[in-house]
Amino acid sequence: MKLLHTLSLAVLLPLSYGVQAQGTPVPATDDSKMETTDMTIEELADVAAMEGKKTGSMFEFGLRPTYSWVAGDVDATGGYGLGIHARKAFDHIFSVRLDGLYAATSGDNESGRRGNRRFESRWTSGTVFAVATLNNLKYEGGQRNTNIYLMGGAGGNTFKVASQKANADNFAEDEPLDNERNDILDREFGAHWAAGAGVAFRISSRFNVGLEYQALIPLGKRADLIDGYKASNFRDVQNAASLSLNFNIGNAATQMEPRYWENPFNGVKKDLVDMDGKVNAATNDADGDGVVDAIDQEANTPMGAPVDTKGRLLDSDGDGVADYKDLEPFFPPRAGETVDANGVVTNRIDKPITEDRIQEMIDASISKIKADLGPTSTTVVTNRGEMYLPIIYFPLNQATVKYADYGTLSSVARVMKGNPDMRLIVRGYTDKVGSDSYNRELSYRRASNVISHLVNQHGISRDRLILQYRGEDENLVPQDRSVVNRRVEFLSAEAGAREDGAPAGSSNRRGY
After folding, report:
1. N or C: which end of the chain has fewer CB within 10 A?
2. Backbone angles phi, psi at 241, to 5 degrees
3. Please, what are the domains in the chain?
């Protein structure tokens, strides 16, 4: 019965005092919300970095106005007391606490019959507690605002009891203890076990308030005499329910708050932010040219300007004008020629190109394409030698001229400009996948787009280019999806060569 009485009072009294102290009941809260923070992970890392420079943590000093009662053989009427403590954290979970308590307690059976007993006791004790924080193993949040803890320990105590038992006449309810009928139990030193629990709420970096309960269980021959009456083999229990006012003591410049107020994962968060910063530094591309700053030799190139693998502006023709500003990016000036700010030759030195020079240029261009494209580079020469310029290849089901082919087409244009009487057949092809009607229309669009590029980008007269298309006919290799078959060829135009008319229409089926 003593144990049941103690546990019930331990639960109800702190709750009732919490309500009285605040005026109205506190609504239920979500503990996860109570522990969250609006700080970003970077800000949390800054806090962790700042705290990491401190060499230790403060200790907590507390004052505890206390409601006390004894769970024993005489009904407790309650009392008052005062506690003090000093708490020092070893880490984020465990700490040690030195505790002192003074409690004045009384009791009265109030039975109104013979044998009625009443008492007044004065308890003084010192206890060493080991304290364990229960709510600090969470990754979320930064600064903890709530500390829930359990504690257990042992210590020494003295207590003095004045008790009185009614004899022939019962004593009135408010009758003072009569010295002649008192049983005085003087102070003696004894040992005790102690256990407790509490919750504290952080107000600032220097102050927190809490609610706490302690049970102190005496040992030895006086264990059942706190109420002055030994009526059973079970010991009495000194109980204390307190409002705790706690102050963090220490140098804020060199010491952080007690560690049970700090998220133990702040160091991990800082490491993650440091790693994220290193990754950002290693992959940052300030000018957006696709080359990270760590290897970018020109880290401020204009947006969209083509660059090489080291982030340098491309100058394909080597005329000193970057490609993104060069109106003729693939026309290197000859010896004696100069270019303006737009990369255009201002004193062009033109002279007829000999047949040998043409063949030399063709061979050089074909060799370059073979080197660039590897096994997909193909050159076909007929018996009459009518096809002599490189082939333009296309991706699956596409007719758009690739940027990679601009240089090849500029070489074709330059040959034609050097030979004003030259006319070329521009003939489109596809592979064998897809319908015949769609593939004829696709081969037409491929040839048409190549002609449009030569006319619009290089100023070649349209009547010098003869558009022809063959669809999936005349494949160079038997594979259905070979890139070699998806091509546009250039052939020398003989007298009387005619342009093919546009296809009558195309189906909606997919072609290649």
Report:
1. N
2. -115, 125
3. 2-40+59-262 (2.40.160.20), 355-492 (3.30.1330.60)
Q: What is the DSSP letter of 381?
A: -
pLDDT digits (tens, 9 = 90+) for 157-183: 999 988 877 654 444 445 555 544 567
Per DSSP, 444 falls in state: H
106-125 tens-digit pLDDT: 888 765 554 567 888 999 99
Residues of the chain with pLDDT > 90, as a percent, come to 35
Q: Do 88 and 59 contact (CB within 8 A), yes or no?
A: yes
CA distances from 145 to 40, 210, 270 (A): 17, 12, 20
Q: What is the rounded CA–CA span in Å between residue 401 and residue 11?
A: 83
pLDDT of 5 > 60? The answer is: no
Distances (CA, A) of 361 to 358, 395, 427: 5, 26, 21
> In whole numbers, what is the pLDDT of the chain averaged over residues?
79
Give the ranges where 23-141 is alpha helix by DSSP (H).
31-35, 41-52
**Non-local CB neighbours of 128 within 8 Å, separated by 6+ positions:** 96, 97, 98, 99, 153, 154, 155
Taking a C-beta distance cutoff of 8 angstroms, is the pair 246, 47 a contact? no
Name every residue whose Cβ is closer than 8 Å to that of residue 484 and which is 6 or more positions away in sequence: 376, 378, 393, 476, 477
- Taking alpha carbons only, the member of 397, 392, 35, 374 closest to residue 202 is 35
